């Protein structure tokens, strides 16, 4: 018997893994926020009731975190056959239990049908959405109920921590993470191990470890889905990080608008404490570390490190100049490691599978995988995890399934509101930290908003600048006043009041705001404008010079008219028009009064004959 | 001491000091609005930006907050720097068109108002430099005023814009304000500031009204000096 407490720690984890073992027969139903909204919890209850009714109580139902393919929710996977069922309703449940669970038979109407070949596909890995993904971080979501620590043990959870405590020195952990090439997933792409090393060497006590879960980009929900779906992976990563840098106190900063994430993290921290994985003398070793949750009030700027520290300390979330780095003076002016939620979730993987394995995935400068949220004008809305270096084309067309309604792709906005819009001509670029920056955008935390020919790029820039104007903290002049003025000018252009020279003014302002702002919010705020000017200048010119919105979006610049040849005079549009702008005799072509028309689009939606045009 | 190059001139400066001091020490003028010797620095106005070069890397930093470093090459008038300063001035002129301080500063810098901006009419002369808030907190020690709201809605004022119970009417905020936004009216035995009227104390020797009674009480409480002693104005002391 080995008396060394560090080796004993590992034995404890090994026993837990063995005891809870890998599950075989179970149903994993997505209970992430998206699927909950489409009724997955009712399906889950029905599954449990039906299993009991059919005397199959030994089959476990896992209410998992997000499974990624949000477009098809509520969805579930029946193990061990791994049949993937989409759009599952409560009425489907008895059949799922009696056929698939009891007899292993597949129900084809619930299967995914390939949009082109029309063939039904059985398993997750057969679906084009999942096929090219490499879901090493996010894929674990489908194997666990995030509210049960046992499930995490069952998939080798906390094995990395056991290994670290038993075999590795803090310096060894840092050098492993360095060798892996892990870069921060929150936006900056800074090398995680460099930060860790900085904090390890920094003078000052205590030292802090923080997970940044202040995901605030419109349309992005990667971090939320990790905190909701696999909270222990984040916690395990943080414990390992704390061990490496010599910290005893950690914080998870999560916004209060993520109630499910808060609930699951709270439960996970309590469970980990109870199992001796957090708190004093972790698993009987000399190492002590605990985590506290800090709930943010939802300001976008609080994702910026120094604003986040201010918020955790209880002050207004305003950034400060970072000429002295957080690794020396961070939270409470003490050495602090701040990494994004996804970065932390990568750490146990690196320890378990080794730096060489991790290093073999990705591009030269960006290693590992990255989770992206794919939203906007795209067929397969959802979360994907791909190796760094996957092209935008593969993401949008292979996994995303292309653009709905046969429309043409126009641009993809990456990196959240302050990222840039990338045009079709650049779809072949491999997605990594450096390449995205090169083309005038950025990785950000991994939001991707797809736009098609019905998206007006000036309007898109206007929307994002409006968002950033509202989210600017107001501390420094270029961001507070400058973003507001840029937003005003864009507002004018979209309203048909653009002036010759506006584009040049926007460009000059954009450069000076990026140079002169105090933090990265102002520093990147002009990106949506600068990148749309760079790639879609002709749309700006059409708005300003020709008073025309080519995409038909900006209401002041478009008119609605009825094609007399296509109009059957059915009168449906007359009924839906709120301003009585449409008139005409029954069965004869109708007309729109341009002065009364508010260009709300209701008539277009209602017309079955495609007779209403926007110009 | 560290050695640097500022606008092509060799300059040495004591470790731990800020670039702004070295630049001014070297006889180079640099505009600022929010750096005041009595209070801590925030880097809010961005007028004091300079371009620094370390190795191959150049970047824009606020000289009021950037500590001196050995071998730093500083350019206080590069094109990027001037563009930032011009933008800041244009933006402030549009925010506070009535401010004579800003107008003079803009003239000195050769900046004219940007006609594309619609000028504000509701911001007064406040540029949100936060000097008033800092002096109230750091020097006076009462925190009667603060910043509220976010972004372009941000304002300085008392909590909920109600009369403040803790304000002592000392007027430090008005003295430190670079643009004269904060209104303080002292007439005879009364002083009006932040919506409150304070009773002024007459000097027990010369009879001149010289400070709000609340301020003297506050000082008495803090320092243990008797009111009798405090009621003599500085000139008669």
Q: What is the radius of gyration of chain A computed over CA atoms, rounded to a whole number of angstroms? A: 27 Å
Strand content of chain B: 15-25%
The rough form of chain B would be described as globular
Global geometry of chain A = globular
What is the multimeric organization of the chains shown?
heterodimer
Report the order of strands and helices of chain B.
Answer: EEHEEEHHHEEHEEEEHH
Largest sheet of chain A: 5 strands, mixed
Distance between the termini of chain A: 82 Å
What distinguishing features does this structure have?
A: alpha/beta; 5-stranded mixed sheet; 4-stranded mixed sheet; 19 strands; B: 237 residues
How is this fold's topology laid out?
The complex is a heterodimer of chains A (615) and B (237).
Chain A: H1 5-20, E1 26-30, H2 33-37, H3 40-53, E2 60-64, E3 76-79, E4 83-85, H4 93-103, E5 112-113, E6 120-121, H5 128-131, H6 149-154, H7 159-167, H8 170-180, H9 192-201, E7 208-213, H10 222-229, H11 231-245, E8 249-255, H12 259-274, E9 290-296, H13 305-312, E10 336-340, H14 341-353, H15 355-359, E11 369-376, E12 382-387, H16 392-399, E13 409-414, E14 420-423, H17 433-438, E15 447-452, H18 457-471, H19 477-494, H20 502-516, H21 520-524, H22 527-545, E16 560-562, H23 572-576, E17 582-583, E18 591-592, H24 602-606, E19 612-614
Parallel strand pairs in A: 1-2, 7-8, 7-10, 8-9, 11-15
Antiparallel strand pairs in A: 1-3, 3-4, 5-6, 11-12, 13-14, 13-15, 16-19, 17-18
Chain B: E1 2-6, E2 9-13, H1 19-25, E3 49-54, E4 57-62, E5 73-75, H2 79-95, H3 100-109, H4 131-140, E6 146-148, E7 155-157, H5 172-176, E8 184-187, E9 190-193, E10 196-202, E11 209-212, H6 213-223, H7 227-230
Parallel strand pairs in B: 1-5
Antiparallel strand pairs in B: 1-2, 3-4, 3-5, 6-7, 8-9, 9-10, 10-11
Helix pairs in contact in B: 2-3
């Amino acid at each position: 018997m080995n008396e060394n407490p560090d080796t004993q720690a590992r034995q404890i984890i090994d026993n837990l893994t063995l005891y809870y073992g890998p599950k075989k027969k179970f149903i994993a139903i997505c209970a992430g926020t998206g699927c909950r909204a489409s009724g997955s919890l009712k399906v889950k209850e029905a599954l449990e009731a039906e299993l009991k009714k059919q005397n199959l109580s030994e089959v476990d139902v896992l209410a998992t975190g997000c499974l990624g393919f949000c477009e098809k929710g509520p969805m579930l996977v029946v193990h061990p056959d791994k049949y993937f069922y989409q759009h599952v309703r409560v009425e489907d449940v008895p059949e799922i239990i009696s056929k698939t669970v009891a007899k292993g038979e597949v129900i084809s109407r619930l299967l995914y049908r390939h949009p082109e070949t029309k063939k039904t596909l059985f398993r997750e890995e057969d679906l084009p959405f999942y096929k090219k993904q490499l879901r090493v971080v996010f894929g674990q979501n489908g194997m666990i109920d995030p509210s049960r620590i046992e499930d995490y043990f069952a998939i080798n959870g906390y094995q990395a921590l056991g290994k670290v405590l038993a075999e590795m020195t803090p310096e060894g952990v840092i050098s492993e993470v360095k060798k892996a090439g892990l870069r921060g997933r929150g936006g900056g792409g800074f090398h995680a191990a460099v930060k860790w090393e900085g904090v390890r060497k920094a003078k000052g006590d205590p030292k802090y470890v923080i997970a940044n879960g202040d995901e605030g980009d419109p349309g992005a929900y990667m971090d939320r889905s990790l905190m909701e779906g696999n909270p222990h992976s984040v916690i395990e990563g943080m414990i390992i990080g704390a061990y490496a840098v010599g910290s005893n106190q950690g914080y998870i900063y999560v916004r209060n608008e993520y109630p499910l994430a808060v609930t699951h993290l709270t439960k996970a921290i309590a469970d980990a404490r109870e199992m001796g994985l957090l708190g004093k003398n972790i698993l009987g070793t000399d190492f002590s570390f605990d985590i506290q949750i800090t709930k943010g009030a939802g300001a976008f700027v609080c994702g910026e490190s120094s604003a986040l520290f201010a918020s955790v300390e209880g002050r207004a979330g305003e950034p400060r100049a970072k000429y002295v780095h957080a690794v020396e003076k961070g939270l409470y002016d003490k050495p602090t490691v701040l990494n994004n939620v996804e970065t932390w979730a990568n750490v146990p993987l690196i320890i378990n599978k080794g730096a060489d394995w991790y290093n073999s995935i990705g591009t030269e400068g960006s290693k590992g995988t990255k989770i992206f949220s794919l939203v906007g004008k795209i067929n397969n809305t959802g979360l994907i995890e791909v190796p760094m270096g996957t092209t935008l084309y593969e993401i949008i067309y292979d996994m995303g399934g292309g653009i709905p309604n046969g429309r043409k792709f126009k641009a993809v906005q990456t990196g959240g509101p302050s990222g840039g819009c990338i045009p079709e001509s650049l779809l072949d670029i491999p997605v990594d930290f450096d390449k995205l920056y090169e083309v005038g955008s950025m990785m950000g935390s991994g939001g991707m908003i797809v736009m098609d020919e019905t998206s007006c790029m000036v309007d898109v820039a206007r929307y994002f600048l409006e968002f950033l104007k509202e989210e600017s903290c107001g501390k420094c002049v270029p961001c507070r006043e400058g973003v507001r003025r840029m937003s005003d000018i864009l507002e004018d252009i979209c309203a048909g009041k653009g002036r010759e020279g506006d584009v040049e003014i926007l460009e000059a302002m954009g450069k000076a705001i990026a140079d002169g702002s105090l933090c990265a919010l102002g520093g990147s705020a002009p990106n949506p404008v600068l990148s749309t000017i760079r790639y879609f200048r002709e749309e700006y010119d059409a708005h300003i010079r020709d008073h025309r919105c080519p995409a038909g979006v900006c209401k002041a610049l478009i008119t609605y008219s009825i094609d007399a040849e296509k109009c059957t005079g059915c009168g449906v549009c007359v009924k839906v028009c709120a301003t009585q702008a449409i008139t005409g005799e029954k069965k004869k072509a109708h007309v729109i009064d341009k002065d009364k028309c508010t260009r709300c689009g209701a008539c277009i939606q209602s017309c079955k004959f495609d007779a209403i045009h926007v110009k | 001491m560290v050695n640097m190059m500022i606008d092509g001139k060799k300059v040495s400066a004591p470790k731990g000091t800020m670039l702004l001091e070295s630049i001014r020490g070297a006889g180079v003028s640099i505009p600022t609005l929010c750096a005041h010797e009595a209070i801590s620095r925030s880097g809010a106005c961005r007028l004091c930006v300079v371009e620094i070069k370390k190795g191959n890397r150049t970047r824009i930093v606020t000289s009021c907050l950037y500590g001196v470093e050995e071998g730093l090459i500083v350019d206080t008038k590069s094109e990027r720097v001037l563009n930032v300063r011009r933008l800041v001035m244009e933006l402030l002129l549009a925010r506070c068109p009535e401010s004579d301080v800003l107008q003079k500063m803009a003239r000195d810098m050769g900046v004219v108002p940007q006609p594309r901006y619609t000028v504000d009419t509701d911001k007064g002369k406040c540029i949100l430099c936060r000097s008033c808030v800092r002096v109230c907190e750091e020097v006076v020690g009462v925190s009667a005023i603060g910043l509220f709201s976010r972004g372009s809605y941000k304002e300085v004022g008392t909590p909920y814009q109600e009369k403040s119970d803790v304000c002592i009417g000392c007027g430090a905020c008005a003295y430190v304000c670079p643009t004269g936004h904060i209104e303080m009216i002292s007439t005879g035995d009364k002083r009006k500031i932040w919506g409150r009227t304070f009773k002024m104390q007459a000097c027990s020797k010369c009879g001149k009204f010289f400070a709000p009674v609340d301020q003297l009480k506050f000082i008495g409480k803090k320092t243990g000096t008797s009111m009798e002693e405090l009621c003599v104005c500085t000139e008669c002391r």
